[in-house]
Structures are given as structure tokens and as C-alpha cells.
């Protein structure tokens, strides 16, 4: 396997490996050694080339402080190597052993209520704690030195799903580290007091040593700037914790690739040091888990959304854990993929940027908190349909890997994403409004079901490949983005701005200019003269469920029924829509076209949606939030005029389509996400790489069927 130096972070970045990683997380410590050779032989027969090991085995690597034992994993790596299978090792810092937490209890996390974590789970150690960081460096160095010359260890995963169980800590040591971070960031206490608005509610400090961690409702709301900086600190601390390990691994063997596997993405700034330290990022994909926990509208659409978000952080990625079957922990369980669906979900990951897929897990555990989290092999050591599906997928991708590697996912419509500050700014002061991602999901879902090439992109990436860019209510707009955005528009791109864009500065202060700020106002030809909340359907004027207490009582005060009856309507393209969440009244420049107008109440006749020609492109401003109906209408009124069209016309319901491309090739993935066969019309001429058969006109897909059509080069 050859590894190149990774390119700078970008949604367009391909993986820097010449191998498509195919395999599974493997836990030799969970099974009798007599099974190892049979496991390796079955893996090789299925097409596995790589396994991942060791992420929860610190107690085995170091059973006593300073005493290291690697023999168990050495033997396991050797058995796999004889079958032609390489190993990705993991630093085991997600589960420090009991001797560590017993001897150094200060490393344990403390929750917002002051309760210290106990041993017996995972991620119970505080990654901001200097003592824990020292032990992390020590185990990482010992493992790196031991495996530095083992040719079967080809790369490393840092930790495991950092911040997935919990990202916050309120320990005394966390407070001290937070104070150090603030002093390094601001230099003087006066600068911090300005940033946090210390004159409001007398929240100013005399010295950094006085600064507290921001606990919610203790007894009221802390400053948004205080909360934002706490999460910036957590992200910086997470990056520093990982950097300790990366630095040791890189110094020990420069040929190793290094990545991390992300779970729920909390308090991690991918565009900062965290992502820059890594060769690529791994994302663990459990579509049914996400959909059932968050009710996001179907697990196929949810998986596509998650993958497109993930790709925006760093480009192509790997999936170190891809759902293979029923999954559970004691408090929840997921649906089980039906026959063919496991393969289809893995193919979706490839279609949207994965250059490596590892099904979780090789064998299920017989003990612990995931005994019903199924793997490729069943509990009774019998390979059944999941093994057959994994084998089919591995062999299919292995046969076409050279066509896939080096390609990136096509996007005609980009949605601004991957910006840590904007993600967190909304959380500091949400007032019941959807987050940027929640709003963007409506547009992404419309594009997914319509077969439009859509994804997420950071404004600092190359925008020239896009036809349109939607910015979903980014409160913080940075001056360094202005030149690239204006160039994109002048060269023919369509920019869509949305309500509240650019209304706060980096300190979470409201800007002193009229929204959306000088630069965006000049570009869009729009200034906001007034804004207000729109009550959600069935909702009330205050959100969520907060009422001013009645005098002398904590009982909620009922709101007048009339507050829930106000509807704000606007017209767009001879159709009337109900506004969602917020209205803005807009003043427009003479060269700005009014596309939509408020049509009732006091706002009647005021512009709601506008467009302005800039060079060869347009800037559209939407003075409200998206609804499914408005997202669909924007396609007809705005995006179609930008040259955006579905990848396949007449896309049948439940069929997913996307394209991966390079200068010399295009691969169209056509995937049936339903349990019934379907015929897809209007397939362009090409070859289905999975079958070798010509594809043109119509394509018949079985239940959960997949096709990868190699098209003629543009």
C-alpha cells in the first residue's frame, strides 16, 4: 500500500491511499484464540484486506502502570497477516483501565451537576485533564514503539468516537484549563469582558482566575459569548488531546496513515487542528440508529445527509463502522436491515465519498453493553446472510476500486456547512429557531428525493464547481469569505442568502450595521428593516415551553390563544406560502428584483424574497426560513434558472442517484432503497461495473439493488 501526503482540507479532496480499505473492526480479545485462524480464513475468503483492533484494550496493553504486554495482539496480527490481512491499530484512550482511574481519580469527568463519572463504562476520563493527557501520551508512545517495524500494522485510529458519549466536563481541572485557554486567547481580562459583554448583568471579571464554567440555568442564562468560548475551548482541548497522539505516531513511523472515527460530531472543529492533523477522517455510519433517534425522515435520506455533512469537513473519508445488522445498547435498539439492505447502505457510503468501508463488527460480543449489536458472523459462529452480503460487497468494490479511487462526489448545489463557529453560535442563543443544519436539511432532503447533486461545502473551498450555493442562516459571516463569494457570483454562480445571515460578530454581539451587514447588503441589494418570530403550527409565542413565572409563583402563565393564530403569508411565483419561524421586512436597492412579497397582515406588500444580478450570476435573499413547500418552489424559481437539473429525469420514488467523477471518468450510482423491485428510466449510455452489462435507457433493480454505471467522459 502506498500513502501520499494528504492534500489540504477540502470537500473535493480524495483519499491519499492507493488501497480501498475493506474489512471490519475485530476484537480478538473477545473470543477464544482457537477461533482466530478460522476467522482470518473467512475474512480472506470474503475479500477483507484490513481490520481495526485495540481501541478498548488499554487494560490488556498495560495491565499495571508501566507494565506493557502486547503478546495477545501480536499473535492476532500475525494470524491475520498470514491470511493476507493488514491491521489498523487504535490508541485505546476511550477506556482507561481501572488502575488509572483508581490511582488518579482527578482524571474522571464531572457533569454539570457536579457528579463525578464512575468506572464501568467508556469516555469517563476528561480529555482536558493534564494528568490524563500525560497517560494518553505514555500508552501511545509504548504502542507506537512496539509496532513501529511491524509491516502488517499499516495505520492508526486515534481513540474512538471522541465526544460521542459526552463532550462536556465541569471538573475543577477543566475550569483551570478553560481559564488558561481564555488567557491565551484574549491576553487581558478587559478584552474578555468586552467579548462576553461584561457590563450586562454585571458579569465582568477582575482576573482570569475568577472565570467560571458556563452552567445553564444557574439560575438564568449565561452570556452567549461565554458559552461559545466554552465550546471553542472543548474543541481546542479535543484537538490538543488528539495532537499528542498524532505527533508521537508521526515521529515513530512516517509511513503510517492516521485517522479518527467520528460518531455524533460534538465539540470538534474539523477545519482546525483536529482535521489538519489527520490523513483523512473516518465516520461511523448507523443510518437506522440516527433516523430512529432523531426522526429525520427515513433512514436512506438520513444516511445520505450524514455522509454529505461528513464529506464537507475534509473530503473523501472512510467508514470504520458501517451498520451490518440489528444494533442495540441497553437503552435502545434499531431496526434490522432486510436482505440486500446492508449491501445497499454500504454502497450509499461509497457513492457519497467513502474510500473505505468496514462493517461493524466481525463478531458480536457475548458480554458487555452491546451483546445484541450484531456483526458479520452470528453469536453461534455461523456465517449467514450478513456474511454473504459483506462478501458480495467486498468483492464488488475490490473489482472496481481503481475506478473509484481518485474520484470525488459531484455537487451542483452546495449548502454552506462545516463551520464550527456558526454551528455553535446558534446553540448559544437559539430562541426556538431551527439550527442552520435543521433548515438546510429541508433543502437537502428535497434534492435527495429529486436526484439533484447536492452536498455541503465550506466557503473557503473551491466554489467554482458549483452552480449555486445556499447559506442557511449563518449568524457569523467572516470578512475573509467575501472575495471568494463575490467571485463565485460574478463568474455565473447563484448565491442564496437567508434570514438573520451575518447578524452577529465573532463575539456573538449583534452587529451595529443594518442586517445582513455591509458586505452582504451590498452584494444582495437588501437591508432588513424589521424582523419577528412566526409562531410554529400549533405553537405559542414563546418557545420552547418557557413562561415568565407569575408573581410569587413558579407556575407557568398561560398565553392568549390569539398568539398561536398569527400566520404570515407571502407569494412567490403566483403561489402563496405560509412563512416558518421568522419574517423579515426588506428594503431593496433600485437594481434588486422582488421575487416574493408578504401578502397579509401589516407586512402586506413588503418584499420577502429578492434577487440581484451581479456579473454573470445572481444573489437571492430569502427573508424567512425554509419549509418543504418553499424548498421545492425555490428549485423551480431559482435553482432551475441556475442550470441545476436532476441527474436522472423521472426518478422513481425510493431510488437514490449520485455521481463520483474525475477528469477522465464518471461513475453514476443508482441505488434502490426500497424492498420492491423498480425500473429506472432514462439511464445514460454506459457499463454497469457491478455486472459488466451495458446500461442504457432502462435499468431494472431488484429490492435494494445497486448499479454503478461508468459513463462516457464529458
Structure description:
By secondary structure, the chain is an alpha/beta fold. Helices cover 30% and strands 21% of the residues. The protein is built from 18 helices and 28 strands. The strands form six sheets. The chain has a nine-stranded mixed sheet, with helices on both faces. It has a seven-stranded parallel sheet with strand order 5-4-3-2-1-11-8. A six-stranded antiparallel sheet has the order 12-24-25-28-26-27, with helices on one face. Helix 9 links the parallel strand 6 and strand 7. Its EC number is 3.2.1.23. Belongs to the glycosyl hydrolase 42 family.
Features:
TIM Barrel, Rossmann fold, Immunoglobulin-like, Beta-galactosidase, beta-galactosidase activity, Glyco_hydro_42_N, metal-binding, alpha/beta, 18 helices, 28 strands, GH
Describe the structure concisely.
This protein is an alpha/beta fold. It contains 18 helices and 28 strands. A 9-stranded mixed beta sheet has the order 14-13-15-16-23-22-21-18-19, sandwiched between helices.
Radius of gyration: 26 Å
What percentage of amino acids are in beta strands?
Answer: 15-25%
Count of the domains: 3
- Remind me, CATH topology of the largest domain? TIM Barrel
Average pLDDT, rounded to a whole number, is 94
Query: Judging by the overall fold, what is the CATH architecture of the largest domain?
Result: Alpha-Beta Barrel
Structure annotation, total helices:
18
Q: N-to-C terminal Cα separation, in Å? A: 31 Å
- Helical proportion, percent range: 25-40%
Please identify the structural class as seen in this structure. alpha/beta
How do the strands of the widest beta sheet line up side by side?
Answer: 14-13-15-16-23-22-21-18-19
Unreliable stretches, pLDDT < 50, 5 or more residues? 545-564
The number of distinct β-strands equals 28
Query: Biggest sheet: strands, sense, closure?
Result: 9 strands, mixed
Oligomeric category? single chain
GO biological process, one term: galactose metabolic process
GO cellular component, one term: beta-galactosidase complex
Active site: 161, 321
Protein name: Beta-galactosidase
Amino acid at each position: 500500500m502506498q500513502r501520499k501526503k494528504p492534500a489540504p482540507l477540502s470537500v473535493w479532496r480524495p483519499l491519499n491511499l492507493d488501497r480501498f480499505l475493506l474489512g471490519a473492526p475485530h476484537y480478538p480479545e473477545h473470543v477464544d484464540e482457537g477461533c482466530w485462524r478460522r476467522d482470518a480464513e473467512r475474512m480472506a475468503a470474503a475479500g477483507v484486506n484490513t481490520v481495526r483492533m485495540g481501541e478498548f484494550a488499554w487494560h490488556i496493553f498495560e495491565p499495571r502502570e508501566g507494565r506493557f504486554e502486547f503478546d495477545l495482539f501480536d499473535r492476532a496480527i500475525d494470524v491475520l497477516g498470514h491470511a493476507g490481512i493488514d491491521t489498523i491499530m487504535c490508541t485505546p484512550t476511550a477506556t482507561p483501565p481501572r488502575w488509572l482511574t483508581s490511582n488518579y481519580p482527578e482524571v474522571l469527568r464531572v457533569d454539570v451537576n457536579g457528579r463525578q463519572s464512575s468506572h464501568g463504562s467508556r469516555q469517563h476520563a476528561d480529555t482536558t485533564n493534564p494528568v490524563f493527557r500525560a497517560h494518553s501520551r505514555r500508552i501511545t508512545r509504548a504502542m507506537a514503539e512496539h509496532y513501529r517495524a511491524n509491516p502488517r500494522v499499516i495505520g492508526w485510529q486515534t481513540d474512538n468516537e471522541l465526544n460521542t458519549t459526552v463532550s462536556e466536563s465541569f471538573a475543577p481541572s477543566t475550569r483551570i484549563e478553560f481559564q488558561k485557554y481564555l488567557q491565551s486567547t484574549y491576553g487581558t481580562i478587559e478584552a474578555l469582558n468586552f467579548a462576553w459583554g461584561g457590563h450586562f448583568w454585571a458579569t465582568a471579571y477582575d482576573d482570569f482566575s475568577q472565570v467560571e464554567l458556563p452552567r445553564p440555568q444557574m439560575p438564568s442564562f449565561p452570556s452567549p459569548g461565554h458559552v461559545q468560548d466554552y465550546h471553542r475551548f472543548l474543541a481546542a482541548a479535543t484537538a490538543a488531546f488528539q495532537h499528542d497522539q498524532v505527533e508521537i505516531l508521526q515521529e515513530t513511523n512516517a509511513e503510517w496513515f492516521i485517522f479518527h472515527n467520528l460518531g455524533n460530531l460534538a465539540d470538534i472543529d474539523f477545519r482546525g487542528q483536529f482535521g489538519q492533523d489527520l490523513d483523512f477522517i473516518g465516520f461511523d455510519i448507523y443510518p437506522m440508529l440516527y433516523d430512529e433517534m432523531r426522526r429525520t425522515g427515513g433512514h436512506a435520506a438520513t444516511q445520505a445527509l450524514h455522509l454529505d455533512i461528513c464529506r464537507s469537513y475534509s473530503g473523501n473519508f472512510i467508514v470504520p463502522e458501517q451498520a451490518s445488522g440489528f444494533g442495540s445498547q441497553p437503552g435502545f435498539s434499531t431496526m434490522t436491515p432486510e436482505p440486500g439492505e446492508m449491501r445497499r447502505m454500504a454502497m450509499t457510503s461509497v457513492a457519497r465519498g467513502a474510500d473505505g468501508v468496514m462493517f461493524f463488527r466481525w463478531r458480536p460480543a457475548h458480554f458487555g453493553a452491546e451483546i445484541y449489536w450484531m456483526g458479520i458472523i452470528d453469536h453461534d459462529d455461523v456465517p449467514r446472510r450478513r456474511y454473504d452480503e459483506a462478501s458480495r460487497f467486498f468483492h464488488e468494490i475490490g473489482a472496481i476500486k481503481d475506478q473509484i479511487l481518485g474520484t470525488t462526489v459531484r455537487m451542483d448545489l452546495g449548502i454552506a456547512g462545516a463551520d464550527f463557529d456558526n454551528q455553535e453560535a446558534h446553540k448559544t442563543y437559539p430562541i426556538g429557531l431551527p439550527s442552520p443544519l435543521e433548515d438546510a436539511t429541508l433543502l437537502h432532503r428535497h434534492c435527495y428525493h429529486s436526484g439533484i447533486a447536492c452536498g455541503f461545502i465550506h466557503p473557503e473551498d473551491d466554489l467554482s464547481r458549483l452552480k449555486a450555493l445556499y447559506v442557511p442562516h449563518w449568524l457569523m459571516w467572516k470578512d475573509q469569505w467575501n472575495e471568494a463569494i463575490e467571485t463565485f457570483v460574478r463568474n455565473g454562480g447563484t448565491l442564496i442568502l437567508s434570514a438573520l445571515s451575518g447578524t452577529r460578530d465573532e463575539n456573538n454581539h449583534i452587529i451595529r450595521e443594518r442586517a445582513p451587514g455591509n458586505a452582504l447588503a451590498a452584494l444582495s441589494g437588501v437591508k432588513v428593516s424589521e424582523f419577528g418570530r412566526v409562531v410554529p403550527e400549533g405553537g405559542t409565542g414563546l418557545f420552547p415551553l418557557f413562561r415568565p413565572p407569575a408573581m410569587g409563583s413558579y407556575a407557568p402563565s398561560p398565553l392568549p390563544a390569539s398568539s398561536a393564530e398569527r400566520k404570515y403569508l407571502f407569494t412567490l411565483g403566483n403561489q402563496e406560502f405560509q412563512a416558518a419561524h421568522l419574517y423579515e421586512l426588506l428594503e431593496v436597492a433600485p437594481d434588486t428584483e422582488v421575487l416574493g412579497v408578504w401578502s397579509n397582515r401589516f407586512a402586506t406588500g413588503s418584499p420577502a424574497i429578492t434577487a440581484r444580478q451581479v456579473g454573470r450570476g445572481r444573489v437571492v435573499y430569502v427573508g424567512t426560513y425554509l419549509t418543504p413547500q418553499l424548498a421545492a418552489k425555490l428549485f423551480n424559481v431559482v435553482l432551475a434558472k441556475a442550470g441545476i437539473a436532476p441527474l436522472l429525469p423521472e426518478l422513481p420514488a425510493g431510488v437514490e442517484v449520485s455521481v463520483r467523477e474525475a477528469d477522465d471518468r464518471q461513475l453514476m450510482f443508482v441505488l434502490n432503497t426500497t424492498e420492491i423491485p423498480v425500473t429506472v428510466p432514462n439511464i445514460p449510455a454506459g457499463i454497469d461495473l457491478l455486472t459488466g452489462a451495458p446500461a442504457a435507457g432502462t435499468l431494472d433493480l431488484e429490492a435494494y439493488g445497486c448499479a454503478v454505471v461508468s459513463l462516457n467522459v464529458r
